[in-house]
Amino acid sequence: MLKFSIKNAFRKKGTAILASVGVGFGLMLVFVIGAFTAGVNAQFQDNLTRSIGIVEVLEKDVEGRANSHLPLNLPNKLSDTPNVGNFIISHNIETQAPIYFTSNYSGPSKLQNIGDTLTLKGLNQSLDQNWGGPTTKLLQGRSFTIGNNEAIVDNRLLDAAQFPISIGVNITISLDPGGINTTTLTIVGIYEEEDIGAPDFVPREYYIYTDIQTLWNYLYLAGEETNVYSSIDLRFNVETTEETENFADIINEYSDVGGYSPTFITAVALATFFKSIEETFAIFNAFAGIIGIITVIAGGMAIIVTQLMSVTARMKEFAILKSTGWKNRHIFLNVIYESLTLGLLGAAIGMGIGGILIIILGSGASPFGGASAIVTLEGVIEVLAYALGLGVVGGLYPGIKASRVRPVVVLKGE
Amino acid sequence: MSKIYGEERTTIKALNQVDLEIEGGNIFTIMGPSGSGKSTLLNILGAMDKPTLGEVLVNEIDIGSLPERKLSRYRKETIGFVFQSFYLLPNLDVIGNVLIPLIPYRIKDKDRERAQELLNLVGLGERAHSKVGKLSGGESQRVAIARSLINNPKVILADEPTGNLDSETGKSIIDLLIKLAEEEHKTIIIVTHDPRIAQVVGEHPLGKNIWIKDGELSEKPTYDMYCW
Ligand SMILES: Nc1ncnc2c1ncn2[C@@H]1O[C@H](COP(=O)(O)OP(=O)(O)OP(=O)(O)O)[C@@H](O)[C@H]1O
Ligand SMILES: [Mg+2]
Question: Shortest CB distance from B69 goes to which of A317, A327, A408?
Fold first, then answer.
């Protein structure tokens, strides 16, 4: 029966293939978006996992990290916080955003998206090595040396910056919007920065690191406060985001009762930040869902129309089948199998084209950011489920119509 | 038994109080002018249609009152239909067409063997795997006859089986149907316009001619019936 139906589905090859291609394009969208969503989600989960144990400390109630001024003795005070146990510590200083590139290059000093920011940070290299920070993740070149106007840059800038980035390039940075106080750094290394894994339209923060003393010198030039830290990062040895958030809460409570006085601080678990990005995925997933619904409707229509045409043209045939003892149920099933065939062919076409598209999009400038598409078993099953659903929905009405044929009426006038 | 089409003023009595008894194992022809109700009668016998009045008793069961589920079983097990326009499916080969009634069920090797035997019986043993599009009219009708036999029905209903064939080929089809009555003990009911077929059947020991006009049976042919 199945074999018979599959053969039958291609009686009118042109229309059958057209319908399948139509369904295929819809399913291709479902497949590709599903694969990219899976990729983005995987990277997001990766980041979430990596963020476990990390708490960032900033001055309380200030706008942005660059305005956060933490005294140099705060790391010691933090180490004395009760009920949090041991943690690894790193601290850094960063400039007032934004940073303007002004020389060596006359083109636009832009980043990829509106809302992207570029931050210059100063690091204590020995603490950073212990932390496993940027200076341990060099992809090219070497790390900066102290006091030599050297910098290492975020590898994502290779794609995102609309100005030249490579080792040996001098970049002139203005520390103020007026471009009055400038300084020139030489790029000596490129390090690997973890992307947040959000879709491309989500703005990102890009980084340039130099040594902390160099940055203090520049801040002094710009009339900014020096000999402070912008933020202090703590890493606890815990397994879950909940435990991390719990330690952040303890630090915040301790600060509120004057534990670090005269400084008051805010501790934020990095995971909390990542969780807040999760909302972006909700939009993304809703989008994928809408595409799915449109596919079901459009694909279902394509199959209904094709099958109706085919069934109407074959009423005599169904009448004959009935005269030989086929039951209504058999004829109905036969039509359903035929539309399932069209749906599944559509799925094959969709996954074929989708697969090619994923390879193309994944290798070039992907609209989905750094996250690469992942073809998951769930993704394939989802497409197949859509195809089967389409087949049943699309075959239902034609199937009923065919099964209700009254042989005498149709066979009259032979 | 009567069959009335339409409602109130526009009614057509396609069959008017037809009273007919068909004994198993015989060959019948139903002759009559166009519109006389031949196909209607055949379709009612084959449970493709239901009478308006009266009953159709097959082995003492009134098939007019059976539910659709039982009717399809009756059509499958008791009746084999042969039509004027053979109605073969072009995307199946010859043996595939013979097996059509069995498609909803799992086709076993035994069924294939039987289909091949039937093809041998109708003289197309060599053509089992030919495309049906390449067959002549007579060959196509033989395939249709083999198809009607696959479920081993007791009765073959043939509505103008020779209508699309030249007279010589038609004759050979009738000979085949007669052979089925003789050798396989089938009950054969043939609707036809062709008086020569009626003659051949009438002269056969198992044969019997039935004439119909304006929905009523008559014992003897009337002259205008031969005008065809
Ligand atoms: N579904 C129907 N609705 C209304 N009238 C019908 C229907 N089917 C048949 N009739 C009428 O019933 C009468 C008998 O029709 P039937 O098809 O049985 O004739 P027939 O003897 O087979 O004719 P032919 O030799 O042309 O095939 C005709 O007058 C026909 O118009
Ligand atoms: Mg007729």
Answer: A327
* Alpha helices for A51-162 (secondary structure H): 74-79, 125-131, 157-160
Domain boundaries, chain A: 2-45+277-411, 54-237
Residue of A409, A410, A411, A412 to test ligand 1 pocket, by largest number of atoms within 8 Å of CB: A412
**pLDDT tens for residues A69-127?**
999 999 999 999 998 888 888 888 877 545 655 555 555 567 777 778 888 899 999 99
ipTM: 0.90
Q: State the Cα–Cα distance between residues A347 and A233, nearest whole angstrom.
A: 49
Amino acid letter, A331? I
Nearest residue to A275 via CA among A110, A48, A84, A103: A48
Q: What is the pLDDT of residues B87-110, one digit of tens each?
A: 999 989 999 999 999 999 989 999
Looking at chain B, which residue has its C-alpha nearest residue A12?
A: B91
CA–CA distance, A59 with A97 (Å, rounded to integer): 17
CB atoms within 10 A of CB A225: 11
Does residue B30 have its Cβ closer than 6 Å to ligand 1?
A: no
**Distance, first Cα to last Cα, chain A:** 27
Is the Cα torsion angle B111, B113, B118, B124 positive or negative in sign?
positive
Residue B13 and residue B211 in contact, taking contact as beta carbons nearer than 8 Å: no
- List CB contacts of A268: < 8 A, sequence separation 6 or more: A55, A56, A58, A248
User: CB-based burial of residue A149 (10 Å sphere; 0-12 exposed, 13-18 middle, 19+ buried)?
Assistant: middle
Q: With an 8 Å Cβ cutoff, is A4 touching chain B? A: yes
B185 and chain A in contact, CB less than 8 A: no
Is the whole-model pTM more than 0.90?
no
CA of B35 to the centre of ligand 1 (A): 5
